[in-house]
Design a protein that fits this description.
This protein has about 240 residues and is α/β, with parallel strands linked by helices. The protein contains ten helices and eight strands. α8 runs parallel beside α9.
């Protein structure tokens, strides 16, 4: 089961005693759904870090909870992805990857942990459940932060995007870096409490607690879908029982 994050009552822990609650309008043309690192490298137990953990005999101790959380959140992300596509929210897939076969171009942190996804490798692929469709942007980064490792800021501004819905893995690393960097660049961010995952329950909770109401607003997938549904095209009944949008 996904960890249930419950925001603290006001005055909030990081608010400095101020009573405020971030909310903003998710107009589809000004909003993008950012899916971070949901690829075979780190979001499937049979490849990448999962396969390596099994080989080293540490999967059950260190990775089982994480991969169970990833599996649990996939249906929710599929629902949100379908809603974004239907309503007209831009979908952007972000993945870890090298430009070279030996990944010599990636950042030092990824080299230290051998977090490698060479071009055209299985590890570089977005997992099938969330696979991009024609017209969706896929950004490859050799860094933890998508704003550091890609031209995403320029891309978002070219498309007049002001708001981001952020999901993916892992919460307290690549996801948190993206949220902080997005806020610093004046994007409004909804971070999904049940659409993100990391290695330990306490890491997940504390990452959300620290970011909420400061760098972003933490929401559930269902809460964000509800906010987006107000922009869905109205459905009008016809006399013969059919409906048209």
């Amino acid at each position: 089961m996904a960890l249930k994050y419950t925001p603290k009552s006001s005055p909030w822990i990081n608010s400095g005693g101020y009573d405020h609650d971030l909310e903003f309008d998710l107009q589809p043309k000004k909003t993008a759904f950012l899916i971070i690192d949901m690829q075979y490298l780190d979001a499937h137990p049979d490849y990448g870090i999962g396969a390596d953990a099994k080989k080293r005999g540490v999967f059950e101790e260190h990775y089982a909870w994480y991969f169970s959380e990833v599996a649990d959140m996939l249906p929710r992300l599929q629902d949100l992805l379908a809603a974004c596509r239907r309503i007209g929210v831009e979908v952007i897939h972000v993945r870890i990857g090298g430009l070279t076969k030996d990944c010599r171009d990636v950042c030092l942190g990824h080299k230290r942990h051998e977090l490698f996804a060479p071009p055209n490798s299985k590890e570089a692929e977005i997992i099938a459940e969330l696979a991009p469709i024609d017209g969706e942007i896929v950004l490859t980064k050799g860094t933890s932060g998508v704003f550091n490792g890609t031209a995403i800021d320029q891309i978002l501004r070219n498309m007049s995007i002001e708001n981001l819905i952020v999901a993916g893995v892992t919460t307290n690393y690549c996801v948190e870096t993206a949220v902080r960097d997005a806020c610093d660049r004046s994007y409004s961010v909804y971070l999904l409490s049940d659409g993100t995952a990391t290695m330990k329950p306490e890491f997940q909770y504390h990452a959300l607690e620290i970011l909420d109401n400061v760098y972003c607003k933490v929401k559930t997938v269902d809460e964000v879908i509800t906010r987006l549904e107000q922009y869905a095209a109205p459905v009008h009944p016809l006399g013969n029982g059919r409906v048209v949008a």
